[in-house]
Amino acid sequence: MTKEKKNDNSYQAKNAWTEMGKAEREEVFAFNKDYAEFLTKNKTEREFASAAISELEAAGFKNITEYDKLKKGDKVYVENRSRALMAAVIGEKDLKEGLKIVGSHIDSPRLDLKPNPLYEDGEMAMFKTHYYGGVKKYQWVTMPLALHGVVVKDDGSQIEVKIGEKEDDPIFFISDVLPHLGKKQMKKSMDEGISGEQLNVVVGSIPVDDEDAKDKIKTAILNHLEAEYDFKEEDFISADLQVVPAFKTRDAGFDRALLAGYGHDDRVCSYTALEAILDVKDPDYTSILLLMDREEVGSMGSTGMQSHFFEDQVANLVDLYYENYSELIVRKVMQNSKVLSADVSAAYDPDFAEVYAKHNSAYLGKGIVISKYTGARGKAGASEASAEFMGEIRGIFNNAGVIWQTAELGKIDEGGGGTIAQFLANYNMDVVDCGPAVLSMHSPYEVVSKADVYHSYLAYNVFLEN
């Protein structure tokens, strides 16, 4: 009987673990250990941006305001309102030949405190919240929560807040009705079981020792805040306080191949992109790291991708690079640039197989995901990469040994989502979405494969270098 010849023309995504030797596996685990520690420490945009700037400065990057002229090899960064930033390594080629950009976002779904959050009811003091981004509200109840952020007083001074992360810190929580009395709740849809107005955080229950106080427990909390943090109730109005999971990022599974943590979307891309540009040596094209805010709510606002921040900073580079600035040069730089929109994809989940297009899904452990388009239903709300650019990216990754796969978000009519790619594409750039797959995306505890995290770093680095 003749043995059937293997068809070498077929395509099948590789499992990254089977392609690794012992030394590379050790590298993968070491890289993810650092990532896990970074993610645990930096759960807000402000924290991520601040930590990123510290790493950039340690690697020789300087604030762009320190330069009168830019030349090959210069490393610069600029931040925007402590919530977004851009970093650049000036390359060999003239700026007019274009930039190599890896752009991601550092905001994640969470609960924000309302402007007037503190109230008392049922012998408890509570914070009212407003959820941010696409959350399943029921996932945020009866779990340990932490409070992160900054309070800005009317004299401009700032108070940093981070409560609930240390072992001896108190945590906060949102209650849920007990099953014995939950008959009506259990008949509701999952979307209605917990409403946005029920996401109220319990923050205290000891009343102040003052018979004349109207709300004794609320008053006690205000006294505590003034004594411990030196801010009053009115200061909440100019505060940027977020309620986030109080979990650490931890290994998952017997083999520790997975990493569970809050904020993988999209800080897994932001971190790997940061590490990628830190390791860029002598790039042909000027390499750009772009870390943006507010993607989870449409990229609006002064720190979002729809602002003029990115365009302004490219103009700033042009002004410092050329003797004579012109708007035409800025436009040439833009239209000749190429971008990896670094955002995550949905990992195939066998327990919910009905929403995935199995042959066009991303799988944990099969490397970084290249998504030709995102959007919803009829590709609405997204750009689409050209065949030429897809071929170029495949070539770069294949030549460098990057393990990659390609995928859509899910079945066509099940829903969809977008990234910052569409806004970068408006500048007439070549753009493609590219990031690791995430299980339980937008939940308080998302999961990624360590192999995919590492190959995302490799992918971004080799793209920026070439």
Automatic annotation (TrEMBL):
A GO cellular-component term linked to this record: cytoplasm
Query: Gene3D superfamilies under this entry?
Result: Aminopeptidase i, Domain 2, Zn peptidases
List keywords of the entry alphabetically: Aminopeptidase, Hydrolase, Metal-binding, Metalloprotease, Protease, Zinc
The UniProt entry, under InterPro entries, shows: Peptidase_M18 (IPR001948), Peptidase_M18_dom2 (IPR023358)
| EC number(s) recorded for this UniProt protein | 3.4.11.-
Q: Name one Pfam family in it.
A: Peptidase_M18
A Gene Ontology biological process annotation?
proteolysis
Q: Which cofactor does it need?
A: Zn(2+)
Sample GO molecular function, one term: metallopeptidase activity
PANTHER family attached to this UniProt entry: ASPARTYL AMINOPEPTIDASE, M18 FAMILY AMINOPEPTIDASE 1-RELATED
Into which family does the record put it?
A: Belongs to the peptidase M18 family.
Name recorded for this polypeptide: M18 family aminopeptidase
Tell me what organism the protein belongs to: Halanaerobium saccharolyticum subsp. saccharolyticum DSM 6643
